[in-house]
Design a protein that fits this description.
alpha/beta; Rossmann fold; Dehydroquinate synthase-like, alpha domain; 2 domains; 6-stranded parallel sheet; two-stranded antiparallel sheet; 15 helices; globular
């Protein structure tokens, strides 16, 4: 029997299928923003006219542009952007880019709201996972500046308030956030995504698949997230295949964006994830594996590991992917292979000498402790890593 409370997230609205220039102009006028600080993908800024178009829409409301956020959101990049936004007296942040840029905007909001001006001060705000798997978050003031997100990938971080930020000195990706760190609005314009490299668009699509799959297979699913996750998998499986076949298919790209949005409904309401997400966080922060690739490599193996305890739930995954009767792990693996994405740790650059450290550090991620089948120590994680090698 389901038991729970559904909470709506602190987000004003989602705009979809409307060109970003039109949608952004309306958003800025509605808010009467006077100093908009833009955080953008470096590639978009250098190689396309997307950010130039944003500049034209903002006009004299533009307070500055940051296009120097590294992969996995390094602390040093976050602090540089926060200090620049503070100096510019920004009253709104706009992101145009992928997950690292989105997380950076959340971190900038945290820094501005909590008077953080140096990287070391972030230690006071990072989440800590206790040995029994509980997540402890220190008191954090709400951001003094909210943000609007224009995502160019499918990882869906713009729909959540948690942010991952990497301490590059210790090679550890840590979790930060409070509810109002979520974007106040999201603009889904498929035309903006045509500049995203194919491998990145498709692999972050598998990240969204991972969200939906681990929500369906969670130890605490909800009726709302079940319905959204099933539809997310339908949209993503057909949309990703269509984009692979024809990268100019904007309708398919919008299907993917809508699927990514649907995939995150469980996260918004506390549906816990499993080891694919938990190990994936560590693969990103420790071994520098892109988010989407972590899901490509780990999700099928985590599904196989969990099947003895949630086979009925996994059958819902296969059905939504259009493969009723097939093992969910095989259905997911087939989708990944059809998109030409990597399926092993060695193919995404993980070294053998990193495996034990990844296994140990994974036990400090909250999602490993909520995996449907109990993971009671690094040796079990190592078994999953070895299976994915």
């Amino acid at each position: 029997m389901y038991r729970g409370i559904h909470r709506f997230p602190p987000m004003d609205h989602v705009v979809y299928g409307i060109p970003v220039a039109e949608a952004l102009d309306a958003e800025i006028r509605q808010r009467d923003s006077r100093a908009v600080y833009v955080m953008a993908s470096g590639t978009l800024n250098r190689e396309t006219d997307v950010i130039d178009n944003v500049r034209r829409v903002l006009g004299n409301r533009l307070a500055g542009v940051c296009a120097k956020i590294g992969a996995h959101t390094p602390r040093v990049d976050v602090l540089a952007a926060a200090n620049e936004a503070r100096a510019a007296k920004a009253d709104l942040i706009l992101t145009v880019g992928g997950g690292s840029v989105t997380d950076a905007a959340k971190m900038v909001g945290l820094c501005l709201g909590n008077d953080v001006t140096a990287a070391g001060q972030l230690d006071a705000f990072r989440a800590v996972v206790t040995p029994d798997g509980k997540t402890e978050r220190p008191p954090t003031k709400e951001p003094s500046v909210r943000f609007i997100a224009v995502p160019t990938t499918l990882s869906a971080g713009e729909f959540t308030w948690g942010a991952g930020c990497t301490d590059t000195a210790r090679h550890v990706k840590e979790s930060f956030g409070m509810p109002l760190n979520m974007a106040s609005a999201v603009i889904l314009d498929p035309a903006v995504t045509v500049h995203t490299p194919e491998w990145l668009f498709l692999s972050t699509g598998i990240r969204a698949v991972d969200h939906a799959v681990e929500d369906l297979c969670s130890i605490n699913p909800t009726p709302f997230s079940d319905g959204a996750s099933m539809h997310a998998l339908r949209l993503l499986s057909r949309g990703l295949a269509a984009v692979k076949a024809d990268p100019s298919d904007l309708e398919a790209r919008l299907d993917c964006q809508l699927g990514a949005w649907m995939s995150i409904m469980g996260t918004q309401n506390g549906v816990t994830k499993g080891a694919s997400h938990g190990i994936g966080h560590v693969l990103g922060g420790t071994a520098d594996v892109p988010h989407g690739y972590t899901s490509c490599v780990m999700l099928p193996h985590v599904l196989r590991f969990n099947e003895p305890v949630n086979g009925a739930r996994q059958a819902m995954v296969s059905e939504a992917l259009g493969k009723p009767g097939m093992k969910a792990a095989d259905a997911v693996a087939a989708l990944i292979a059809s998109l030409g994405l990597p399926a092993t740790l060695r193919s995404v650059g993980v070294r053998p000498d990193q495996m034990d450290a990844i296994a140990r550090q994974s036990m400090h991620d909250r999602w490993v402790h909520t995996n449907p089948r109990k993971i009671d120590g690094p040796p079990v994680v190592r078994e999953l890593l070895d299976a994915a090698w």
